[in-house]
Amino acid sequence: MTCDQLVCANCNGRVVDGRCPVCRANRARLQQEQHGPFATLNPTVLLAVLCAAVLALALLMR
Ligand SMILES: [Zn+2]
Questions:
Q1: Distance between CA atoms of 30 and 23, rounded to whole angstroms?
Q2: Ligand 1: centre distance to CA 12 (Å)
Q3: pLDDT digits (tens, 9 = 90+) for 29-47
Q4: pLDDT tens-digit series, residues 3-37
Q5: How far is the CA of 32 from the centre of ligand 1 (A)?
Q6: Exposed, middle or buried, 43 (CB in 10 Å: 0-12/13-18/19+)?
């Protein structure tokens, strides 16, 4: 889902246009989610990295 398809409940405009404070807040939040420091660090990625580390350790300990 992309933020340019969201319609604001407050002004009925597209959120990406930023016509009202609600739009601008939502747009800022969406952009922060997309480009934030945790954008790539979701739980699935963390779990995969953890599994890879355990596997590598197991191979080294043989
Ligand atoms: Zn709005």
A1: 10
A2: 6
A3: 888 877 766 666 677 888 9
A4: 567 899 999 999 989 999 999 999 888 888 777 66
A5: 18
A6: exposed
Please compute the mean of the pLDDT values over residues 37-61 and round it to a whole number: 84
Phi, psi for 40 (deg, rounded to 5):
-100, -10
Query: What does 2-61 look like in DSSP terms, one character per residue?
Result: -GGG-B-TTTSSBGGG--SHHHHHHHHHHHHHHHSTTSS--HHHHHHHHHHHHHHHHHHH
**pLDDT score recorded for residue 24:** 93
Partner residues linked to 7 by β-bridges: 14
How many of the other CB atoms lie within 10 Å of CB of 30?
A: 17
Q: Which chain residues have CB less than 5 Å from ligand 1, an ion?
A: 8, 10-11, 20, 22-23
